[in-house]
Every structure is written in C-alpha cells, then in structure tokens.
Amino acid sequence: MSQLEAGAVAGAHTWVSEGSAPHGSEQTFKDGWFEGVREASSLLLRIADNTAAQRGRAESNALLLAHLQQKPSPAPRTEAPDPAPVLDAEEALAAALRCTWACADPGEFLVAEASAEILTVALSAVREDERADYVQRLEAFADRHRERLEEMLRAYGPGSTPASHGRYALVGQPESLVLCERFETAPLLLDAKWDGELEDVLLDDLAFAWGAGHRR
After folding, report:
1. Whole-angstrom Cα distance, residue 95 to residue 141?
2. Is residue 78 part of a domain?
3. What are phi and psi of 26, to 5 degrees?
4. Do residue 12 and residue 113 come from a single domain?
5. What pLDDT digit, counting tens, does each position of 13-59 carry?
6. Are 97 and 37 members of one domain?
7. Would residue 123 count as lying in a domain?
8. Which of 65, 99, 117 is the last residue of a domain?
9. CA of 76: how far to CAs of 72, 73, 79, in Å?
C-alpha cells in the first residue's frame, strides 16, 4: 500500500512538472506559473519520499492487525473461588441473648416463628466478608453500645409509655441487636433486605428508638 501511494504521488509530480502555461499567456504569468510548478513539484517529491519510507511501518501495522484479528487463546482454567462462609443464625441469636442489657424479659419475646423470620432478614444484610467473624463483631458492638442499648430499652421497651400504644415491638428483642448493628454498619443494605419482607413500621420504630436517622 505504501508503494502504491508513493507511485501515485510520483505520477502526480510528473504530471505537474511536465505541464506548461496556457498558450498565449503573458511572460509575467508564465514566470509565475513555472515558479508554482517548481514549488508543487518539490512538495510532491517530499510526500513521495516520506510515503515510501514508511513501507516498513506499514508492514508492521499489517502484522499487528493480523495479530489482533487472530482468535484469542482460551483463558487458563482457574479454580473456583471458595464459597462464602455460612452465618449460623442460632449462634448469632445465642450471642444476642447473652447481651441481657439489650433484652426485655424473655416473657415479652415474640413467638419463635416471628423471631426467626426477623432474624433471618436481619442476617441477610450481613455481607459475605463479615460473616466469618460476625458473632465476635456483634458482641463487640453490644459491649461498645451498652449504655445506648440500655437507654433504648428503658425509653421504648416493654412497659414504657410508647410501647403501651402497641408500637416499638422490636425494642428489647434479642434479634433487634443484629438490626441495631446493621443500622450502624449497612443501613441501606438492611433497608433493601427488609423491604417487602416484613412490616416497615416495625423497622421504622426500632430505627427511631435507636436514633438511626436514615429512616426518619
């Protein structure tokens, strides 16, 4: 291709250089004509030389194009990633029950089926990279926020004035410890997991009692 381009330019040079001024032109016109022909011829020769000099580059580009058009070799096989750790709901619940300052009297707990459903949704908001040590994380959270949990239980838990109106049912429930920890760690993920699964008012009330401003 580069040789063809160079040949075309050289041909144009020949056509320009062999031309002549129109018959009957004045001498000043002829002088300007031939000066223009010399400049044009010189320029065309430089173009032809540059084009021919790029022959090697053109061949390299052709080789590169042929290489890119080759079918890619199959990717090496890799081992499947390790499965995400399984979060034990019973172990998480047992850890929450050990945090007695966050819980109401066991006689006030929800029925087991409702408690299990709430815990399942709460734990679904625990990310894969948090699962391996989540029980320890939950215990550390409870220890760090002990006073805040106690105050929430006093203000909104069973026997409190707000609870007497039939609201704040989750305050004091052991599974609410997981919910409060998720309020602090992954609130939007918790919202997404809760949405459409359980009544919004349950989570809204707990969020208000805890002070999770994102749901106010």
Report:
1. 11
2. no
3. -70, 160
4. no
5. 455 555 666 767 777 776 775 676 567 655 555 555 455 444 444 44
6. no
7. yes
8. 65
9. 12, 9, 10
Both tokens of residue 143? 């220890």
- How many domains, the chain? 2
Does 183 lie in the same domain as 94?
A: yes
Hunting for tokens 């429930």 — which residue is that? 173
79 in a domain, yes or no? no
Say which residue, 61 or 20, is predicted with more confidence: 20
Q: Domain span at residue 161?
A: 89-215
Q: Please write down the HEC assignment for all residues of the chain.
A: CHHHHHHHHHHHHHHHHCCCCCCCCCHHHHHHHHHHHHHHHHHHHHHHHHHHHCHHHHHHHHHHHHHHHCCCCCCCCCCCCCCCCCCCHHHHHHHHHHCHHHCCCHHHCCCHHHHHHHHHHHHHCCCHHHCCCHHHHHHHHHHHCHHHHHHHHHHHCCCCCCHHHCCCCCCCCCCHHHHHHHHHHCHHHHHHHHCCCCCHHHHHHHHHHHCCHHHC
Do 116 and 176 have their domain in common?
Answer: yes
The token pair that represents 158 in the structure block: 């069973």
